[in-house]
Amino acid sequence: MARLFVNTLRAQVQSISKYARNASSLIGRDFLTLKDYEKDEIETLLWTAKDLKCRLGNGEIYEPLKGKVASLIFQKRSTRTRLSSETAFSLLGGKACFLSPDDIHLGVNETIRDSAVVLSRFSDVILARVYGQKVLDDLANFADRPIVSGLSDTYHPLQALADILTLQEHFGYVKGLKCAWVGDGNNIIHSLILGGLPLGMEFRVATPSGYECFDHVIKDAKNLAEKHQATLTFTNNPFEAVSGADVVVTDTWISMGQEDEKEARLKAFADYRVTKKLMSNASKEAVFLHCLPRKQEEVDDEVFYDPARSLVWEEAENRKWTVMSVFLHLLANHRPLINKPKF
């Protein structure tokens, strides 16, 4: 009877701890999609990322997460997500434990519910890079620790934060920037518009017919555009999207799990390659983003390696600073020391 009482009390405390919110703290929150975060919260995450980059990037020792443990679940392999997450958590003083598909079989050898409960006993935060968004949603439902999306078929919020930080650093602001997306209506553009619209970015999304963004994401994005008085348009014409743009973004046409669609996709996306000719329709100061890994058919070398326009390497590095910011805010209160950047 006493054990039952203790377990019940523990469950209640953990539930309160995870879901308690206040205006000044993100502690205990899940980070599954940027649509769950308000404008000021997104700005705070970006501000902290810049703060940490300035300080730890210059050798400062700052370990507020000393003694904390992160479980990193990877159903899908990744260079940037794994390295950025492991190095970020380590620099903050914590210990990151990588779990490959050989180490954990979500929903196979053990139910997602059971895995979530066990991982909660070992970890302070759980990052998961998965195929389906439902896996993340189920983990968040059953775990009593914050769940961070490392990517799903629907969202990639960590990449969106890195992209926005990269643009803010380059231009000195993001409000009013005209961003053109050329390619698949996938998890990257889903998160980029959900994170960028609240900050006043303008988006023109060009996708081939049949490869548009998910309907429910379009609905959410239109609501955000109306709320924040931002411009959002969808088209099947890449030249229309790029015309006068400040930023041109693309991504892989064939993600992991879509290999059987390769031939059809290469044909459908043939006119969506980012070339020097396409970039000539953008503004003279336009920059190029690609979250990597990059394939030859997606963008020409002269665009991808252009030292004046391509920000792909800065974008890749910023994955570390933005995931560091997310980990820190979900586990501890933090006030940046640098002045808040202009957004």
Tell me what you see in this structure.
With 343 residues, the protein is of the alpha/beta class. The protein has two domains: 20-155, Rossmann fold, CATH 3.40.50; 157-316, Rossmann fold (3-Layer(aba) Sandwich), CATH 3.40.50.1370. Helices cover 43% and strands 13% of the residues. It is built from 13 helices and nine strands. It has a five-stranded parallel beta sheet. A four-stranded parallel beta sheet has the order 2-1-3-4, sandwiched between helices. Helix 2 packs across helix 13 (312-331), helix 3 packs across helix 13 and helix 6 (157-171) packs across helix 13. The longest helix is centred in the C-terminal third of the chain and has 20 residues, at 312-331.
List the helices and strands and how they pair.
Blueprint: H1 2-19, H2 39-56, E1 69-74, H3 79-91, E2 95-99, H4 112-122, E3 125-129, H5 133-142, E4 147-151, H6 157-171, E5 178-182, H7 187-196, E6 202-206, H8 215-227, E7 232-235, H9 238-242, E8 247-250, H10 262-268, H11 276-279, E9 287-290, H12 301-304, H13 312-331
Parallel strand pairs: 1-2, 1-3, 3-4, 5-6, 5-8, 6-7, 8-9
Helix pairs in contact: 2-6, 2-13, 3-13, 4-5, 6-7, 6-13
